[in-house]
Fold this sequence. Notes:
Strand order of the largest sheet: 5-2-1-6-7
Shape: globular
Radius of gyration: 19 Å
CATH architecture of the largest domain: 3-Layer(aba) Sandwich
CATH topology of the largest domain: Rossmann fold
Largest sheet: 5 strands, parallel
Number of domains: 2
Strand content: 5-15%
CATH class of the largest domain: Alpha Beta
Amino acid sequence: MTLVLVHGYNIHADDWDKIVLTGPNWTYGRLPIGLATAINHDADVIMLGSGGTTKDGVTEAQYTKNHIDFLLIDHVLRSHCKSGEADTINKNQLMDKIVLDETSKNTREEVENAFRYMEEHNMHTLYFVSSPAHMPRCMREVCDVFQRRGLHEMWNVFGVPSETTWADPKSVVIFEPEHRPGMRCVDWTPLNNLFKMDVDELIDFLSRLS
């Protein structure tokens, strides 16, 4: 059984519509990519996060669900789903698959809640949908929670990036523990671009901050 987790986004962000719904030229945010993923992989549950922010008493999860309409679903079906499948999907049944996570306050809690739900319902495949610039940190949380909960190799976990984002994924800085001789644990390129320094100058600068 399969669960698609659509990562929540701060309701008060100026770019909420672009990140969660659609950007220029109908580029897809987290929600439509999550719907397309659920349809293409015949998911049993679509979980919307989260409870991190609220507006007039409405959580991120409920706020996101409130923006789903049949026009959006139709567009997803026509543009992102398998040929001939659009006319066979029951939109009401698709809506019935939606579950709200209104208790999590951050990415890690979203992941914890999703895995807990999956264990309780004997589910073993997770598709995690988020923005490209956020995906590396999301998958770090997914892998850590997966390991700490002692989940076994029969589980399948996939990251699915949306088409819209607030930053170039190349701007994400990853500090990776050394695991082979001579390896640098940091990709210095984004930091070089940020501080306008070469590698040696940047290392010297950071060492003086510690």
